[in-house]
Amino acid sequence: MIVATKPWVAQRGARLVVVDYGDRPGETRAHITLEDVHADGPAAVKAANKGGPRYKRGDAEATLEAAAAGKVPNTSVRWRASALLGVWAPVFATLWQPVSLVVVCTWGYREQVIDGTVYCKTQKHFYMEPQTSYAIPDEDGTMRVFASMQNPGGVNAAVSRVLGLPLNKVQVVARRTGGGFGGKLTRHTPHAAAAAVAAHALRRPVRVTLSRNDDMKTTGGREDVLAKYQVRPTRALLGVPFCCVGRGVWLGTWRCLILRVVALVGAGCLRRHGQVGRGSGVSATQRRL
Amino acid sequence: MSAQLNGGFDADISGFATWAFTHSVDQAYYAPHFDTSGEYLHTNTLTRTAARGPGDAQSAYVMETILDHVASASGA
Q: B43 vs A271, which has greater pLDDT?
């Protein structure tokens, strides 16, 4: 750790540090993206895989196998009804196709399995205030830590662990967090602990404030996702946008919009579920994740 | 659907993000037959961490992309 009385002195000293990671047996090259992991084969994927949950509803495997075997799908009554509900609005709006043609094409559309891959890249945090921690040695061997973060309990535990102090000997204050967006939930902890260690060793206040570049380099961002999917839309779902815009007519925007309306009607999302009423309990309020 | 999340060198909250992604990927839409498995991988890069709506934002992007694909395929 490099500590200086001026920020620019500390930054120049930090640039002189050379880190040698050495040889990592078994790894031919660094895995930065998910594609890098897959490029090294199934063994690399298996070694890096940390598992996760599975979420099932119905029997998707049997549905896909039935489509592959060319069997007539069992379109549920709910989807048929939702498709018809979704048909009427665009049909009456356009009035350039007879209703009979719409219905015939809906039921006559050949079902197919659509597969593909989606890659959603990472996203950096965009708070204006960088990670900042300020540690002050206090009386009786206690440590006061001011930090811009969203998790005072995590800082309390981390600082007490690195200094070997009990939890009640560390006081953590989040006077101003600034923007966080999750970037100050866990990633501020190393900086707060570093400030506390330096302050404990030097017996004087120490502040750690990242530059914008260092903050963007070290905070990480959200998880990027590689998803492979197989979809078998029912005839009712696929037939509606097909009929409304016509085969061979490139009207992608309308087709996407109509498909979403039909899918939402099928999910029951456009229904009104109830009314807001007053009760004797605690008032319900705004929340966000 | 099988989805993999890049968790970076450390777990951080990638386990929760994977759970949130898996359980919210159908978004407001309904499919009678639905099967999604999610897992996160360790890589040699910065650990991924919490960001507004961990897992949910990625699932929305993925699901809307799938709907675009289905819509375009319906008129092919």
A: B43
- The reported pLDDT for the residue numbered A278 is 55
**Residue B6 predicted with pLDDT over 70:** yes
Residues 6+ apart with CB under 8 A from A50: B7, B11, B14, B15, B39, B40, B41, B42
Does A26 contact B at CB distance below 8 Å? Answer: no
**Cα distance between residue A210 and residue A216, in whole Å:** 9
Packing angle of the helix pair A189-202, A152-163 (nearest 10 deg): 40
If one counts the domains in chain A, the total is 2
Rounded to 5°, angle at Cα A148 from A142 and A154: 60
CATH T-level fold of B2-74: Aldehyde Oxidoreductase; domain 4 (3.30.365)
Q: Is A221 an 8 Å CB contact of chain B?
A: yes
Q: What ipTM was reported for this prediction?
A: 0.95
| Pairing status of strand A206-209 against strand A170-173 | unpaired
Asked if A222 and B56 come within 8 Å (Cβ–Cβ), the reply is no
The pairing of strands A225-231 and A206-209 is unpaired
Decide if A248 contacts A139 (C-beta within 8 A): no
CA geometry: angle A211, A289, A119, nearest 5 deg: 70
For A45-92, what is each residue's pLDDT tens digit?
Answer: 999 999 999 999 888 888 888 777 766 544 444 455 555 555 555 555
DSSP class of residue A49 equals B
Of B1, B6, B13, the CB nearest to A227: B1
pLDDT of residue A236: 56
Burial of residue A26 (number of CB atoms within 10 Å: 0-12, 13-18, 19+): exposed
Q: How many CB pairs under 8 A join A and B?
A: 243
Residues A81 and A215 in one domain: no
Same domain flag for A193 and A262: no
Strands (E), chain A: 54-57, 114-120, 132-137, 143-147, 170-173, 206-209, 225-231
User: Looking at the domain assignment, is residue A145 inside a domain?
Assistant: yes
| Model pTM above 0.90 | no
Residues 6+ apart with CB under 8 A from B34: A55, A56, A57, A58, A60, B26
